[in-house]
Amino acid sequence: MTEESTLPIADSQGRYTTALGPDDKDELEGILDGLASRGGEDIPCWEFCDGFLTALVCCRRPIPPAEYLPVLFGDDGARLEVAEGEPLPWVPVFADAAQQTRFMQLWTRRWNEVVSQLDIGLETMVDEYEFQPGVLDMRGAMADLSDEERAEMGEDYVVPPLGQLWARGFLFAVKNWIDDWEIPDDREAIQWQDRALDEIAALLEDDTGVPEVGAIEDGPLSTSRARVAVFCKAAQAAYALRQLGKVLGARMAIAQKVFKPGRNDPCPCGSGKKYKKCHG
User: Fold this and answer.
1) pTM value?
2) Which Pfam families match (predicted)?
């Protein structure tokens, strides 16, 4: 383990988790590359997965692994049936149960890290605990390759700009659980959510500006300052969506508890019958 991989992360409730270090991220990428090499054409890269994970953290309904893993790995029609309290069964996309267990260990650490960082909030955040989407400066990495290495990539290889794959993963999760993102009868919350999602969607656009900064130390310039500003706004949008999801989740839970009719109350459908004799 590297020193970075043991950095403690504390949220506003004093909960601690452990950040993923470079070795951990390389291991995750290795697992995903292995899944893809075994014929998994729909296996996403880690940057896409990190965006997907962050969206699940921001969703107001807790979505279990048995529900999201088949979607993430391209088999959304094969949701796993898992009884409450039962362990997650083996998902066939993994080589074996041990590989799945290791992936979920690393995934859970990243999940807890994102939760802790987003729950700190922008106002009380310190730099070392700041939420950073798990992105790679692909254009910087490509520019740092030799001519021979770039030629091996092929002329048709499209190099995504900073944060684009992360945004695709985030919005892919939103699309697949769109019902859980719909906000009824709250115009202000709807506008707030739409604005935050638009800021993340802005990362889907290409970076056509002049390269002015680079993420690789002493490496080539790869990203415009305008793109960096868009990226920072998207990261801040994740804070807003996490807080909104928590507020709306709690609010809807209270509403459901308060307005559920009793067995002898009139049925809400207007039939005139008691709830227990009608839709109860």
Assistant:
1) 0.80
2) SEC-C (PF02810), UPF0149 (PF03695)
